[in-house]
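Format notes (please read before filing issues)

Several people have asked whether sequences and C-alpha cells are stored in separate files. They are not. Every record keeps both together, in the order shown below: the sequence lines, then the C-alpha cell lines. Line labels are part of the format and must not be stripped during preprocessing.
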Amino acid sequence: MNIRILFLSFALMGSVFTATAQGLTGRAYYKSSSSFKISMDSSKMAPDVIADLQKQLKKQMEREYVLSFSQTESNWKQVESLGAGPATASSGGASIVISTGNQDRLLYKNVAEQNYIKEEDLMGKGFLVKDSLNIYDWELTGESKQIGDYTCQKAIYSRIVDSKTFSMGQDEMVTSKDTVNVTAWFTMQIPVSHGPDDFWGLPGLILELQNRGMTYIAERIVLNPNEAVEIEIPKKGEMISSKDYEALSEEKMQEMMKRYSGKPGSGNEMVIKIGN
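Then the structure lines:
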C-alpha cells in the first residue's frame, strides 16, 4: 500500500488527528549502531585481526541522539558524551581511526513548510545547508510490532543513487549505482511527522529506522515535558543550497585527489565499508 493511499484513509479522521497532535511537544532519545565490513588482502592481515578490529569499531560507533519536536518543527543532534569522538581500533600492528564529524551539528526540520537547515563543516569552514525536505514515497507493509509502550507499523522506501568514492593512488573518483533501502517503524500513538536524521513524512513518530547499515532505535520518549521544548534554528555558517554544497564538496574532493594522485597507499592500506 502506498503511503499516499494511507493519507487518504487517515483524512477521514483528520479532525481527530489534529486535535490529538495540537500542541504536542516532546523529546525522543535514540541510540544508533553501525554494521561494518572491513576488506583487506588476507595475505597481509590475519582474519582474526580483521575480526578484532571490526568488533572494536562496531562498539565505538554506537552513538546517542535526541530528537526535540513540536507538531511542525524538530531538532536532531548527537548527545554529547565521552564516547562521542572518533572511533579507534588497533590489533596486530594495524590501527584505524574513523571520524563521523557530526558531533556538534544541528539539523532543523520544518515539516509544515517542508524545508530544512543543516549545519555542515567542509575543510574547517562552517556552512548552513538550506533546502526543501526530501520527499519519501513510503510504502506500508502491513506489519506491526511493539517498541516499548508503543505499537508501531512498518514502512519501507527505496531508491537508486549515484555513489562516488576514491582511494589513495586513484586519478579520478569512481561512480557507481547504489540502491538505498530504508525501513521505518512509526507509531500513530505519537501523531507527529518526525523521525531520525532527515527522515520524516509518516503519520506518526518514527521510533526505529534502518538505513544503509545504520540503525536508530528510540530508547526513551518524553511527551509534553514540564520545561518547554526549544526548537533551535541553526544560524552559524554561510548559507548555501544542498546542490551548491554538493558541488563544492566534490570540488574539494577533486583537489584532494590531485594532491595524492600517483601516490599509492602503503601495503597496510585497508578499505572499510559501512553497510551491506
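For reference, the curators noted about this record: DSSP finds four helices and 16 strands in the chain. Residues 242-260 form the longest helix (19 residues).
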